[in-house]
Amino acid sequence: MNSAPRPPAEAEPAKPSNFLRQIIEHDLAAGSYATRRWAGSPGDAAHHATGQPDPARIRTRFPPEPNGYLHVGHAKSICINFGLARDYGGVCHMRFDDTNPEKEDVEYVRSILDAVRWLGFDWGPHLYQASDYFDFMYRAAEALIEGGHAYVDEQTAEQMRVNRGDFAKPGVDSPFRSRTPAENLARFREMRDGQHEDGSMVLRAKIDMASPNINMRDPAIYRIRRATHHHTGDKWCIYPMYTFAHPIEDALEQITHSLCTLEFEDQRPFYDWLLERLTEAGLLQAPPPRQYEFARLNLTYVITSKRKLAQLVYDKKVSGWDDPRMPTIVGLRRRGYTPESIQLFAERIGVTKSDSWIDYSTLEGCLREDLEGKAARAMVVLDPVKLVIENWDALMGAGHLEPCTAPVHPHQPERGQRSLHFGRELWIERTDYEDTPPKGFFRLFPGNKVRMKYGYVIECTGATRDASGQLTEVRAQLVPDTKSGTPGSDSVKVKGVITWVGATDGLSAEVRLYDRLFTDPQPDAGGKDFIEALNPNSLTVAQAMVEPWLANAQPDERFQFERHGYFVADREDHQAGGDTTRRVFNRITGLKDSWGK
Ligand code: ATP
Ligand code: MG
């Protein structure tokens, strides 16, 4: 026997390592979180009660603010957080960071959950919201006050800004900084009880007004804001600041690795400071979660700012959040991207600590790679003109339709055959005919022979144009005994093969030819007005003819239209079925990258 050593059965295909994987592997080997006791449901009043050892080896989380639709940048973060948890036998929490009552909405909550699920991830029972922890956060704030680590500041916003200093200048202590814990506690409770105006005072952490890190110069941790929260209603008129809330959310959920984008790097000292204080106060268990930052996704020809995407929607530059040109997850989905192609993309671009731009063609490449083996093939004529076979009736009999077949997938014979009908009249692409052929043109021109794919060889005899010069009809003669797949059919050599749809059984369809939304690879870089970079040709609509097999195309079903690219039946507007239906296909991407040239 000469059997090669086999990997253990549970071995996964090796994934390229990155700095996050190295950190996690180190922590797993060192048992950094092995002593953790699972506390049961986070946010629970009895949080600190120790239960069983935490069964999850690592815990990550995806923490969107429910204030907009997720975009392709979030998809990167989702794939990192859920992907690492999956790969290391851990758990990823889905958490809404809903600490900002004014901008949030349940509509966004629903769309975010849909997007994560569609991308292929499952949070199991671990669905949380920051607002569930408001009681705990309030207690944490009181504990800081009692420990001398927080104070109520009544300076105006302007005074606070000036006294914070800047990179060159240390800050100046607030006159309220030396209040006693008892005074601060009383004031803070008045804030909570609605005895003070919005904006009249804030609770600040008491750290170091001279710190070189401005985030450590006594950051605000609670503010007064009379606003109805979509979850807690009018229970609170004070709300925690994001930078205070986030570490607490992570700690309560026993997150091990809190992964975020680089802009939070300067917040990490406060993250650690806060969790140390609360652990000292006996409110949290050690070891605390640790924050690690990675580079955000910058994708050429795309903007990934929620605010700017909202502007495109509200100014009606696109048809909505799910317009197939939008980089939102709902937009990518409607455009025809598959969850697998987006996961592949996230893996391919990897995780680094330095900002860079990823070329849009990388995303399109992942889609092509995913769909090449999956998508059924079909013939479609996007700009149809009639082709008439002059000798058809004489050779084949008047009205005869010759059945032809084409594989559903050229490399997967098990998927069967599509059936087509060749006849006297066919639809072909307008651009497949030229009166005088340019150099290298091998398709239809008088005297030239081409093969009609899956059909016969024909010889072009001419064409008709209307008064304006518009092509109205192309004519040809059938070359007998050349039907594809019959013996001797390749005895006539041709240089061109063209696609077609039968005029008798072809169906009409609307085909939406989408292109990039912007003409500038970095539409909003350096303060540029991204509206000016909108591509005026990002959508053209073709009235196409499609082969009969597509009558049963289901919404969301993807195809390769031969010669043209990958297309999807539109999930909103396409109807499958008989004659009265509306067929609508979206172009996802062409067969090759056509932008680099
Ligand atoms: P935006 O700045 O577009 O409004 P955001 O960061 O405010 O996005 P959140 O809801 O706070 O949106 O984001 C949830 C998570 O997604 C955060 O952890 C954030 O770091 C991450 N994220 C947001 N944009 C990107 C991006 N372009 N690349 C990678 N991760 C991102
Ligand atoms: Mg954010």
Q: Rg from C-alpha positions?
A: 32 Å
- Helix vs. strand class: alpha/beta
**Strand proportion:** 15-25%
- Spatial gap, N to C terminus: 54 Å
Strand element count: 27
CATH architecture label of the domain at 300-372 and 507-546 and 553-592: Orthogonal Bundle
Task: Say what the CATH topology of the domain at 300-372 and 507-546 and 553-592 is.
Answer: Glutamyl-tRNA Synthetase, domain 2
What's the arrangement of strands in the largest beta sheet? 12-25-26-27-23-24-13
Report the sheet with the most strands, covering strand number, pairing sense and barrel closure: 7 strands, mixed
| Mean pLDDT over the residues | 93
Detail the poorly predicted runs: 1-11, 43-49
Share of helical residues: 10-25%
Ions, cofactors and other ligands present here are: adenosine-5'-triphosphate, magnesium ion
Can you say what the CATH homologous superfamily of the domain at 300-372 and 507-546 and 553-592 is? Glutamyl-trna Synthetase, Domain 2
Instruction: Give the class-level CATH name of the domain at 300-372 and 507-546 and 553-592.
Output: Mainly Alpha
How many H/I helical runs?
A: 13
Question: Can you tell me the overall shape?
Answer: elongated
